[in-house]
Amino acid sequence: MAHRSAGRSALARHLAVLDAFDPLHPFLTLTEIASASQLAPSTAHRLVGELTREGLLERQADRSYRLGVRLWEYASRTPGAVGLREIARPWCEAVHRRVRQHTQLGILQGTEALYIERLSMPDAVINATLVGGRIPAHASSAGLVLLAHAGVGAVEAVCRAPMRRYTSETISSPEQLRRVITRVRGDGFVVTNGHIHLEARAIGVPVRGAGGRVIAALTVVVPNDDAPAQPIADLLTAAAAGASRDLVRASGETGEIAPETIGLSKRSVEFIAELEADGASATR
Amino acid sequence: MAHRSAGRSALARHLAVLDAFDPLHPFLTLTEIASASQLAPSTAHRLVGELTREGLLERQADRSYRLGVRLWEYASRTPGAVGLREIARPWCEAVHRRVRQHTQLGILQGTEALYIERLSMPDAVINATLVGGRIPAHASSAGLVLLAHAGVGAVEAVCRAPMRRYTSETISSPEQLRRVITRVRGDGFVVTNGHIHLEARAIGVPVRGAGGRVIAALTVVVPNDDAPAQPIADLLTAAAAGASRDLVRASGETGEIAPETIGLSKRSVEFIAELEADGASATR
Questions:
Q1: Contact residues on chain A for B74, CB-CB shorter than 8 A
Q2: CA-CA distances (angstroms) from residue A170 to A195, A249, A268, B277?
Q3: Which CATH code, of 1.10.10.10, 1.20.5.110, 3.40.1390.20, 3.40.980.10, is assigned to B10-74?
């Protein structure tokens, strides 16, 4: 196998190592990391050592590696994922309690929907969504909702990319995609029957943040049967409105959410700021 | 101010930029990043550009920056944080519903307790804990529980570090620390009255993973009054036992948790693996 080390920046090579870990492969040996990241074994060895010393990787008792808790620490400070997820969580739970099937929150990342939440139960219908997983936007209900409210550039990028056909029902041409997202814009929700698996139907609505901008899609995956979709679409619309209200309330002057202060009293936030200021002068 | 660029590895410098963002400062300008990371402005500018291109930073409309969603994606694959948090969540919620005060889950990272969960409400007692935040182990109830079940090396490291005094009640000597953790080991729980703020009491118990190893501490922060601590300690002990049972059940053959498959049906996991295999051969 050709190694692709040459020409990649130091950062890109470190990230290639981290990218070797995916939702279904959370534990990898050094050999597996080198292979997945297309790095020479000696390079992979050195990079893994650096990443382990910094806490971005953790070595396990069996000598395999896993992504490290330091990455989680950084992530706990990402307003675009954690802030959104925490604020929307009670609304996702409310939907999940009623529908008792997969309930998910997705955001648009390039040409894909990235799922930042999925509430599920082991006996729910078959589903391809993982928390932290991605599905191409043309194939996912969240993707279609997000494209319906995204700029022309985002839609064109999806039209240019190859459109993977999961089933006979998957959207497979730019014309079909444009037609569907125009309709989603008018209806205010999407229903996809069997686009990823013939047994599953997805229903989704947009979630708006500050300034009315669509920042996420709230979707459910239910059995693909003859049950009417409208009652679920109505439930989702009500929950999305609640989440939007809480998102706007949590946004600061800049329209941005500071994830860490969600649900904390003002007095506690002030106390923490004080401790931090004291700590900086006293012990550092 | 002296710049510390020289002598630091490329990785360390990229991480210094990410480290500039903390729970109370999620949005920073380029100037603030350079200052916090002790990098020359030109170096900070270049590194911020690289990190933004890779999605580890996101530029906002007002030209400030925030940590990017790509970090959250990596984090969603960290068994040591996400897996643990997701599995323990129903048990944290059960405690929170009963106690109606801060309920938190902490893990030991070096000489500090790192909090991976905090359920709270705005009218709860004053508290210094943030999700993703750290408190020195000698001062936090989670830290004391974790040290009581950690190796001698971990305890010695805390004894060697300066022990910040938050209040007159904070543990402030190695002798006192060793006495307390011996007692915690015997009692099975810890009670700290006013160690971080005189108005707050913390009560904590260990959470065990595969092989009976203590991997986290479940704690509550309640008003520091005359109410007996034992009923809360009993509640925490019962919840921790439930969480431990679920953790052991979720652990694979290696005793490790694959976070992404929590709560998904076996059929869905197999379907996702199939899709992934097809995708690798068909579209890549």
A1: 18, 21, 67, 71, 75
A2: 4, 38, 50, 18
A3: 1.10.10.10
